[in-house]
Amino acid sequence: MKRSHEPVFWSLFGAGGILAALCGVALVFVTGLGAPLGWIVSPRLMEFDTLRAFAGQGFGKLVIFAVIVLFLWHATLRILLLLHDFGLGGGRLTRWIGNGLALLATIFTAYLLLLL
Amino acid sequence: MPDTARSIELEILRYLPESGHEPWYQVYEVPFEDDWSVLQGLQFIKDDLDSTLSFRWSCRMAICGSCGLMIDGVPRLGCRTFLRNYYPRRVRITALQHFPIERDLVIVADDFIDKLKRAKPWLIPKQARALADGEYLQSPAELAHYRQFSTCINCLLCYAACPQYGLDAEFAGPGILALLHRYNADSRDGGREQRMDLGHSDAGFWGCTAVAYCSEVCPKEVDPANAINQNKMGSAIDYLLRFVRPRGSGE
Amino acid sequence: MSARIEPGRTDPRRPWRRSMRGWWHRNPYYLRYLAMEATSILIALYALILLLGLWRLTEGEAAWAAWLAMLKSPVSLALHAILLPVFAFHSYSWFRIMPKTLPAIEWRGKRLKQTTITALGIAAAVAVNLALLLLLAGVQP
Question: What is the interface pTM, i.e. ipTM, of the complex?
Answer without folding.
Answer: 0.95
